[in-house]
């Protein structure tokens, strides 16, 4: 379903736009995803709406092989958020050690404290961090919107499946411009 509305208390949740992940080869240029996400973050801040910056700092507890990426020892700076996001003191920062941003973090509590009823998602990877967070948000009762031109994946087919099949079942989708047009002036 195309994005039609934003709740008065909508938060932007930016998934894993960190140095180690944006450096990976992606289906769509990561720099474009970063630029669109940064535009959304600036607009949400200007509208007085919460911005959540999520990074992944490790692997799920109990996992010792590091998963598909190999080692659990990430290079220095790997988890650092990209500077283009212009992190502000008012931003909420969430560090996770699994795919989704809800499990094992304080994200739900931070959103509920602020009266948030809807989230807009952007970031990398579409089929992993973004999709997992979208599913969890839906299950937590949030309205979900995904900025489909502000997400990408290392796997083009997985990206397309999430955008075409999964996200429309969880909520609404739209472009960065669609979402910016729905923000309060």
UniProtKB/TrEMBL annotation:
Asked if the keyword Hydrolase belongs to this entry, the reply reads yes
Isochorismatase-like domain ranges (all copies):
10-178
Arranged from A to Z, the UniProt key words for this protein are: Hydrolase
Any Pfam family from its record, for instance, is Isochorismatase
Please give the name of this protein: Isochorismatase family protein
Give the species this sequence originates from: Actinacidiphila epipremni
